[in-house]
Structure formats: structure tokens, C-alpha cells
Write a structure and sequence with these properties.
The complex is a heterodimer of chains A (130) and B (136).
Chain A: H1 3-6, E1 17-19, H2 23-33, H3 47-62, E2 69-77, E3 87-99, E4 102-113, E5 118-129
Chain B: E1 15-18, H1 21-31, H2 36-39, H3 41-45, H4 56-70, H5 75-78, E2 79-85, E3 94-107, E4 110-120, E5 126-135
Antiparallel strand pairs in B: 1-3, 2-5, 3-4, 4-5
Chain lengths: 130, 136
């Protein structure tokens, strides 16, 4: 179901999303990825967990269909996320076009603390069957 | 050698992963991404891939793990990554994640290491390719 995305123009600002990553979530993420870097065990947030959870929220907000696949990803970190720290994700639709029967959508998400300090910036392209 | 000992041509610590459907299921819960293309065999059978595939971000988690191992103090603080998902990873496959330093620069007392990163499937096709940059 890409009808919501189909109605949006590049530049569209999505409603900010807020989430926290607690110790249980960090460990669950690290276990799922099989992460042996021990970051979660040391009480730190695995860096990609922030991006993964933020992207999931975008996908949910867009109500993207089950055939959606990930085409490309850019990430820039500016500070490590902390456990139990509220993270605010602000997402803007950067690109939205249809080619060969599929919709290509690019979103830019910035992750900040509630006080405005940067954590990361991500650019995600997904392909959605039309 | 630079002060952090990274030199062009140097390999990053290789990571090898054998992906299971149970791991994909656990990742879906951990990342809150329950797209049926990853979880529902019947749904996935009707897609272009014909069977369930791993989340792209799960594969990227493997790449991130390699970068965390290579740059434990810097990756999550000042790292950057740009990748393409070129082919899906299927549960049951063993993939190798590797990287190579392509450039080391030093400016104003800050070292920047640029690397290629790649996740390779058992048939040697590339699942994920890209570039990582870390300021140390």
C-alpha cells in the first residue's frame, strides 16, 4: 500500500518521532545482529540500532507495503546515542518518483537529543512496488 | 604508519555470519520491522525473490559490527557510511563482511580513515557495497 507515499511531494516533513533505546532493546538488537563488538554488553547503544529503529518508524508512518525493499543507506554519526536517552527523529521526504513500476522514495532523517544535540543523520532509499 | 597505525591497503577485521530465519525473526522484533517479506514464507513466495530475505539493515548491522571492531572509540561518534544493497541475503546463507583502507589523511590533528566495505554472499555476489569514513 503505497497510496500515502504517492500523495506526498519531496520536501514533505513528517511528524517528529521520539523513541528511547533501553538496555533490554540494545541487547536484543545486538543479539539479533550477532554483534560481537560488545557495545551493548558495555552499556552502549550499537550505532546502527538508532538508524534501524528510526527507519522502522518512517516505514510505519508511510504505511509501506510488505514488498518494500531497501535500496541504499547513508549514515553520519556525530555523537553516540546513550541508553534511555530520548531521541527525536525528524524526517523529510527527499525524493519520490516512479520508475519501471516501482516507487523510489528517499527520506532524510536527523536524530537529535531533546536538547537539540546531534546524534546522527541518515539518508534511506526504499523501493516500493506500485 | 600513522599515529593510529592505519595504512592504505590495510584490511579491516573480517566478520563472517551465517544467517538464520530465527535471527531474522529476532531482528524484526528488535528493530520493530515486521515487513512480511522477511517473515512470511507465503507472502515472500509471491515477491521477486521467491522466498524470505533478511532485512537490509540486518546486513548493515554486520557491516557496522565490523566497523565497531575496527574503530571501537570512533565509529559511533564520528563515522560515516554510504552503501548500496545490491542483492538480498537469504536465511541459511553465510556472508563475509570485509573492508580495506583506501585513504588515510591527517588534518589539524585529526585523522580520517576511508575504507571500502563489502558483504559477500556464498556465490561471491556482493550483497552490500559501499564506503565508510571515520574521523579518529
Amino acid at each position: 500500500m503505497s497510496s500515502l507515499l504517492g500523495a506526498l511531494e519531496p520536501g514533505h516533513h513528517f511528524e517528529d518521532q521520539s523513541f528511547t533505546i533501553d538496555s533490554e532493546m540494545a541487547v536484543a538488537y545486538a543479539k539479533a545482529v550477532g554483534d560481537e563488538s560488545q557495545l551493548a554488553a558495555e552499556g552502549k547503544v550499537p550505532p546502527m540500532a538508532v538508524i534501524a529503529l528510526g527507519l522502522s518508524q518512517v516505514i510505519e508512518a508511510l504505511k509501506l507495503g510488505g514488498g518494500t525493499v531497501h535500496a541504499s543507506q547513508e549514515v553520519e554519526y556525530t555523537a553516540p546515542a546513550q541508553l534511555d536517552q530520548p531521541i527525536v527523529a525528524t524526517t523529510v521526504l527527499k525524493g519520490n518518483s516512479v520508475r519501471r513500476g516501482s516507487r523510489f522514495a528517499t527520506v532524510v532523517t536527523t536524530f537529535k537529543t531533546t536538547s537539540g544535540d546531534g546524534i546522527a543523520r541518515a539518508i534511506s532509499m526504499v523501493i516500493v512496488p506500485e | 604508519m600513522t599515529r593510529n597505525n592505519w595504512v592504505e591497503g590495510q584490511s579491516l577485521p573480517e566478520v563472517t555470519k551465517t544467517l538464520t530465519q530465527e535471527q531474522v525473526n529476532a531482528y524484526a522484533d528488535a528493530a520493530h520491522d515486521w515487513n512480511p517479506i522477511h517473515l512470511d514464507a507465503d507472502f515472500a513466495a509471491g515477491t521477486q525473490f521467491g522466498k524470505r530475505i533478511a532485512h537490509g539493515m540486518l546486513g548493515l548491522g554486520f557491516v557496522s559490527e565490523m566497523l565497531s571492531l575496527a574503530f571501537p572509540d570512533s565509529w559511533g561518534r564520528s563515522g560515516g557510511l554510504k552503501v548500496r544493497f545490491k542483492a538480498p541475503i537469504f536465511p541459511g546463507e553465510t556472508v563475509k563482511i570485509s573492508g580495506e583502507v583506501t585513504r588515510v589523511s591527517d588534518s589539524d590533528g585529526e585523522e580520517t580513515v576511508t575504507c571500502t566495505v563489502v558483504c559477500v554472499k556464498p556465490d561471491d555476489t556482493e550483497a552490500i557495497t559501499g564506503t565508510a569514513t571515520v574521523r579518529i
